[in-house]
Amino acid sequence: MTATSPATMTMAGAINRGLRAAMERDPKVLLMGEDIGQLGGVFRVTEGLWKDFGPDRVMDTPLAESGIVGTAIGMAMRGYRPVIEIQFDGFIFPAYDQITTQLAKMHYRSQGRIQLPVVIRVPFAGHIGAVEHHSESPEALFAHTAGLRVISPATPQDAFDMIQQAIASPDPVLFLEPKARYWDKGEVSESRVKAQLDAPGGASAATADMSRGRVARQGKDVTLVAYGPTVRLALQAADVAAAEGTSIEVIDLRSISPLDSDTVVRSAKRTGRVVIVHEAPSTYGPGAELSARVTEQAFFLLHAPVLRVGGFHTPYPGSKFEHEYLPNLDRVLDAVDRVMTH
Amino acid sequence: MGAAPASTMFDHVYAEPHATVEAERAWFARFQGSFVDEEAHA
């Protein structure tokens, strides 16, 4: 692949390429996690990196998430840039104390003297027919914690760019990988993020860039907001609605903390209708925060209340109920109909 | 040495700017400033 010829790859492959590029760029970048070395991770996202970079830079860890994060914090304090993998979303909870009490707050606690550039990669969300611990969407818990950045790519290009931007950022980043999208293919160009990171001030530009949302599809009647695993669903809903005469603008947030509400509010002021879709439970979810911001900033231009489509306030159900638990095309289109007919 | 102003509570949350913190910092400055204006016009 050259700078001028994008290659087609899966999202998992794009993250792998991004990790490789970051490790080649900076010898302080290290990978740690359960079975990420010789095996290449349960989703094979780190495949080949142990062989090419060796066990000093790609480390298999014990099954001890709190210890993995704690070790990464110590390494970051000594100048390394650890990238750790939590094998499944639900396995992150044993590390919750280390993440929220130590990782998120050390920069503040030290009045800026200590930076902790740790990236926590988390395969998250559902649609793989699994059960609790393997299909969860815990992003609100971390977005609620000051000091952490929380981002999620929806395309292979963003996965390739954003994993490198996260590693370059001086802040701790939760990098949420929509595992059901790992094998979706798309074109990836390596040149843009390379130029960004090679330029002076590259880390600042990268941090700002990964914090911005994007308009994935333009429209004029309804603003449909999604991120990570639900962006494809939102685009499908836009296709169906277009056939019925409703023009939907799809916004891919990309970042949950910070939340690029400016992009959403701009769109909401034009369409007057907003629907937010995520797999995380609607209750206290990112959609609730975004709904509040849209209402605060665009209240008099709204034609209908902001609606949310998300998981229910239940534990993640058994796989036979997964389709009904997660946002699906019918539920998204129902919400679109409701804001259009309000 | 005087006490640090309350606005410094927004410093060092992140190493790079974060839109939420910056928005709250700006709101807090306006809020604090509104009291100064009231006193000036009293």
TrEMBL record, chain A:
Residues 9-184 form the Transketolase-like pyrimidine-binding domain. Keywords: Oxidoreductase, Thiamine pyrophosphate. SUPFAM superfamilies: Thiamin diphosphate-binding fold (THDP-binding) (SSF52518), TK C-terminal domain-like (SSF52922). CDD domains: TPP_PYR_E1-PDHc-beta_like. Signal peptide: none annotated. Its cofactor is thiamine diphosphate. It holds the Pfam family Transket_pyr. It comes from the Bacteria. This is 3-methyl-2-oxobutanoate dehydrogenase subunit beta. It comes from Demequina sediminis. The gene is bkdB.
